[in-house]
Design goal:
This protein has 702 residues and is mostly helical. Helices cover 51% and strands 5% of the residues. The strands form three sheets. Strands 3-5-4-6-7 form a five-stranded parallel beta sheet, sandwiched between helices. A four-stranded parallel beta sheet has the order 9-8-10-11, sandwiched between helices. α25 links the parallel β8 and β9. Bound molecules: iron/sulfur cluster (SF4) (2 copies).
């Protein structure tokens, strides 16, 4: 009988490995349907380091600490318990069979028992967490809403069963060899050894064979099931995540935040002045995604972390980053057989496949309302444990909608036109860019006013005022405050005045790459010609665009946010806040300053140093900050579905008890100021939104 069990197990092993191999190859085939992307293998040594750090160190998973720890043991157990599977095969023939060389070695037994126990506890924790967050109970508020639950349950019960088998086998083995006292070899399984000790040798022999067979069956069934379900990300990520992490956009390990990717066709940059005949403008069909995009969506574990953080989803919009990824994945896999068939033979394909191939990417697969609801806040990218690059996918689809289909929210028309004609989204005259200067009582040097052709040597910083800083009332107040603080600190700076034009950030995030490139090229030409090197900006969007996107077009400058300069000046004693500001302050991290550019500390240093003020954090702050609703060009669109994102954020701020909500971005300033007067927010009287540098100026001025 033992031999029969062994033979069945060996045959199943061979078939399972074969089936697994066939599906793995199929995954490679489907991913190959995508466009080329030759930007994913630079700095291989750093990529290996990043991949090892993220996988072995679980650095991204550990953003959610308890789950990260539980998952780490399950992850390690998958590889580390391979020895116990091999042993189980041997035990089908002989209950005493152990691995050669290390099988009887105490450190190996201790290690196996420890990892087996920890894996078992880990999976129980993960199962309980999934049960507590079930969509049945929480509806849309569950991060698992929309995930394929049976697949997750199946994976969890498989690991649970294997964990039970590993420990049971250890107990049976101990009883069989007559272990009579606790030892390191049975450090965790000893209670089971005691439990089984009264059984006869024959019974123990049979039990060992049966439990070993169950363990093998559960393990091999898992391979059969995932071979049958190639889109079962909850299982396949165990293999695909390594590749997805190694091939991520940033070799140094940073998530795909900050700059957007330039537009490429099969790895070649699109030249807007003379586009190639086969140039692809964004993504309008699944085959226009790159192979890396397709790997991305196939790797999704359906964990829903991204969904749980998304401000659009959390305010009732149809956008869930997870559901976008899953829709792209399912469509890619459904359409792949059509794409793999030679064109001449496609008409012979089945009607279902032909119908799938006819589905429009935006419209049928992705709801346009979802596509345009994204604020590009980056919360999804920040949270994703397998480094999926959601924003790039969303913006690529927006690009195609804007530049090919001319299908975008009507409100964007005005913004595009204003940037194109007037050089700013508000449509103001360029001559008004210096109007704030006439409202201050200290001198401000304007480039060119004294006949300069390049920035003079004594000027340390070029102050990039930005469109908001020049034309929007609240932002103008910030501009004046920053200029005055720099003046008080004796910092030599200069502004460009009407030499500035819109950076193109809003156009780019709205998918109008053509307009963005026009704006960017104009600014780069100006900045390069005047020899700009060090730039301060009060707008995180300008900072991100000039500092991190202009290098893609040949503009390389050191660009900092005013919080970085001002906190350094306060630290150096060049500005001293002395006047007490008697208030409790909370701080809203702008997405493009915090998550996208990792500037978290300087604004806080300033705010915490204000005399008389106390500082309190919002529940969602730092990397988990909740968007104000303006990013991704949403500033220029109506918010018609669900509740308002800015009001949701304002409620979170009010809940801290703070009476002053400090901001560090002109768009956050507008959005949160507007929200504070909404009845729903119920802000106590006197609650105000203030840009942090205006608070600093209040404290500096006596
Ligand atoms: S970037 Fe922000 S708004 Fe857009 S999908 Fe991700 S979390 Fe949602
Ligand atoms: S995209 Fe990433 S965070 Fe979102 S469900 Fe998939 S694996 Fe999880």
């Amino acid at each position: 009988m033992h031999e029969v069990l062994f033979s069945v197990a060996m045959i199943a092993l061979v078939v399972a490995v074969y089936r697994f191999g066939v599906t793995a190859w199929r995954i490679v085939d489907v991913i190959h349907v995508g466009q080329q992307d030759n930007s994913r293998s630079n700095e291989p040594a750093r990529r290996w380091l990043t991949m090892l750090k993220e996988s072995l160190g679980h650095t991204r998973m550990l953003q959610w600490t308890p789950i990260g720890i539980a998952h780490w043991f399950v992850f390690v157990g998958f590889g580390a318990l391979l020895g116990t599977l091999i042993t189980a095969f041997g035990q089908l023939r002989s209950p005493e069979w152990t691995l050669p060389v290390i099988g009887d070695w105490t450190p190996y037994n201790l290690f196996s028992e420890f990892i087996g126990t920890a894996t078992f506890i880990g999976i129980v924790v993960l199962m309980l967490i999934r049960q507590a967050g079930k969509p049945k109970r929480l509806g849309r508020n569950s991060r698992f809403f929309g995930s394929t639950l049976w697949q997750a349950y199946y994976v969890e019960w498989t690991i649970f069963t294997i964990g039970v088998c590993v420990l049971t086998l250890r107990g049976l083995e101990g009883a069989y060899v007559g272990a009579s006292s606790w030892s390191l070899d049975h450090a965790f399984s000893y209670p089971l050894v005691v439990l089984f000790s009264g059984l006869s040798s024959t019974t123990l022999e049979w039990l060992i064979a049966i439990v070993a067979f169950i363990k093998i069956a559960a393990s091999l069934a898992w391979f059969f099931v995932i071979a049958w379900q190639p889109t079962m990300g909850v299982a396949w990520h165990r293999f695909l995540a390594f590749f997805n992490i190694w091939l991520k956009r940033n070799a140094d390990g940073r998530p795909a935040l900050g700059p957007l990717q330039p537009m490429r066709t099969n790895g070649v940059l699109v030249d807007f002045e003379d586009p190639a005949d086969d140039a692809i403008f964004g993504v309008g069909a699944i085959e226009e995604m790159t192979w890396k995009d397709l790997l991305d969506v196939t790797t999704c574990t359906e964990c829903g972390r991204c969904q749980s953080q998304c401000p659009a989803w959390n305010t009732g919009k149809p956008l869930s980053p997870k559901l976008v990824v899953l829709s792209l994945r399912d469509h890619a896999w459904a359409k792949a057989p059509y794409l793999m068939t030679p064109e001449a033979e496609r008409s012979t394909l089945g009607t279902e496949l032909l119908a799938e191939a006819q589905r429009s990417l935006v419209g049928d697969v992705i709801d346009p309302e979802a596509l345009w609801a994204c604020t590009t806040c980056g919360a999804c990218v920040q949270q994703c444990p397998v480094d999926i690059e959601h924003i790039d996918h969303i913006v690529d689809m927006r690009r195609q909608q804007v530049m090919v289909e001319t299908a975008f929210p009507a409100e964007l028309n005005g913004m595009f036109k204003n940037i194109e004609v007037k050089g700013n989204p508000w449509g103001m005259n360029a001559s008004g860019r210096n109007s704030w200067i006439s409202e201050v009582d200290f001198p401000v040097r304007v480039f060119g006013a004294s006949g300069e052709e390049t920035i003079p040597d004594d000027v340390e910083w070029l102050f990039w005022v930005g469109c908001a800083g020049a034309f929007e009332d609240k932002a103008k107040k910030t501009t004046k405050a920053v200029a005055e603080l720099l003046h008080l600190a004796g910092v030599n700076f200069m502004v460009l005045g009407d030499g500035e034009t819109c950076t193109g950030d809003a156009a780019r995030r709205a998918g109008n790459e053509f307009l963005y490139v026009m704006q960017a090229q104009q600014n780069i030409e100006t900045l390069n010609s005047i020899g700009a090197r060090k730039i301060i900006t009060t707008c995180p969007h300008c900072m991100n665009t000039i500092g991190r996107e202009y290098p893609q077009l040949g503009g390389n400058y050191e660009v900092v946010h005013h919080s970085q300069v001002l906190s350094a000046l306060v630290g150096a004693g060049a500005i001293t806040p002395l006047t007490p500001i008697d208030t409790t302050i909370t701080y809203h991290d702008p997405c493009y300053l915090g998550r996208h550019n990792q500037v978290f500390i300087p604004p806080r240093t300033i705010l915490e140093g204000l005399p008389g003020a106390s500082f309190v954090e919002m529940e969602r702050s730092g990397t988990t900050s909740f968007c104000c609703g303006a990013g991704g060009s949403r500033m220029w669109m109506e918010e018609r579905i669900g509740s308002k994102i800015n009001e949701e954020r304002a409620k979170q701020a009010v809940a801290t008890g703070a009476r002053t909500v400090a901001v560090a971005c002109p768009f956050c300033n507008v959005m949160l100021s507007d929200a504070m007067v909404a009845a729903d927010v119920a802000a106590p009287e006197g609650t105000r939104v203030a840009e942090f540098s205006t608070l600093l100026l209040e404290a500096v001025k006596k």
